Amino acid sequence: MAKKVIDIFPPKKKTAIEEKKEEKEIEAKPKKKSHISFRPIVKKMPALPFKKGMILSFVFLVLLAIFCYVTLSKAEINVWPETENLNLIEKADIDANAAKVDSVLKIIPAQNLQKEKTVVQTFPASGKISKEEKAQGTVKVYNAFSTSPQVLVATTRFVSADGKVFRTPVKITIPGGTYDKGKLIPGSVDIKIVADQPGESYNIGPTTFSIPGFAGTDKYTKFYGESSEAMSGGYQSEVSKVTEEDLAKAEETIIDKAKKECNDLLQEELKKNQTASVLDYIPDSVQSEIIEKFSAVSANQEAQEFSFQAKAQCRTLVFKKEDINNYVREAIAFQIPQDKKLYEESLKINYNVDEVNLETGQIEVSITITAKIYADLDVISFKNALKGKSLLEAKLFLENYPKVLKASVKFWPFWVNKVPDELSKIKFNLIIE
């Protein structure tokens, strides 16, 4: 019988003593703590071969350089051309009757601008006048002297009981008396008498009057007067009056004020137009005049104050800034060579008024023009001539150009060493000093 091979042997059955011994060993053995740790699983990309990476980097850098060179390369060229000062004086007529600029006839169209202002002001009267009146009244004059009438000449004096002298303004006749039963009844007549002096002191009450012209005769006591009512109307005071000087000063003041306020209105309108850069004017052409003036009182008239009124008119001609600028540019174009160009920022225009006639709407002026002109350089031709040139070549070209005073050339970025071929990447600056 063949021998049987057993790979796994069945465990032997342990005795009771062996089992107890094994249990004691387990209890005496210290328990170990379990530690569980996790590590991230990193998948690594397969590395490219070293040579292949270098080639790709090199290609990338070359492409980047080409891109930068093509897109970023620029040239800035500053040129200072030849300049000269231009000074011109042009005669012209600013005409409100013209419709358009005529550089041949030297006419610039304009329009009338007019403002009016009425000013009223009250002034005090400085003069003084004595105002006085004489008292007057009615007196009954008696003739107890005879039956014959008695004539009294004008200005015959009558003296009141308190010594106030009055006079008859006209000649009077006092009728004679009459006898009744052997008794003389006095004749009488009512007459008007006026105080010899002005003043309130002659406003006396009813009283008796004597006639001092009869003093020393029998008639003195036989001719007399009696008033039944008080004398009235007498007064004397000082009041204000308007003098010639008052009127003259008021006229001067009101004229100046009216002209100023009228001119302020005109200037306000002109300022609006100038601010809007639409219209312009010549300050020396503004005219102001008084078209109305009067006072309600006359010289030596009694008044404490008086009013004076004046109406001013201000006017001038205004013209479009565009018209004057076009006229000046045409004048300059006739005076400068074709190879020269006007430097607009340097243009200055001043006016000198030769004659003003606003009635006909015309102003003759001398226009002083100052400006800089410079050599007219063809920028496109310059760019075409410079493209592809190195820094040194570009500088030599510009420095030897007859119409150029000086020039500078700059390349960007730093690796650019010639002027780009694309004209849009060439920045060309004309600098006028």
Characteristic key phrases:
433 residues; alpha+beta; disordered N terminus; rod-shaped; 7 helices
Write a concise synopsis of the structure shown.
The protein is α+β, with helices and mostly antiparallel strands and about 425 residues long. It is built from seven helices and 23 strands.
How would you classify the helix and strand content by structural class? Answer: alpha+beta
What is the share of helical residues?
10-25%
Largest beta sheet, briefly?
6 strands, antiparallel, barrel
Spans where pLDDT lies below 50 across 5 or more residues: 1-10, 30-38
Q: pLDDT average, as an integer?
A: 86
Strand proportion: 35-45%
What distance separates the N and C termini? 129 Å
User: Could you give the order of strands across the largest sheet?
Assistant: 6-13-9-8-14-15
Written overview of the protein:
Among the domains are: 113-125 and 241-317; 131-239, no CATH class. It is 24% helix and 39% strand. The chain has helices at residues 16-28, 50-72, 219-222, 244-275, 321-335, 379-386, 391-399; strands spanning 74-81, 83-95, 107-109, 111-124, 127-133, 136-143, 150-152, 157-160, 165-167, 172-174, 178-180, 183-185, 187-195, 208-210, 223-226, 235-241, 279-281, 287-295, 305-320, 340-357, 362-375, 404-412, 426-430. The strands form 7 sheets. Strands 6-13-9-8-14-15 form a 6-stranded antiparallel beta barrel. The model is unreliable at 1-10 and 30-38 (pLDDT under 50).
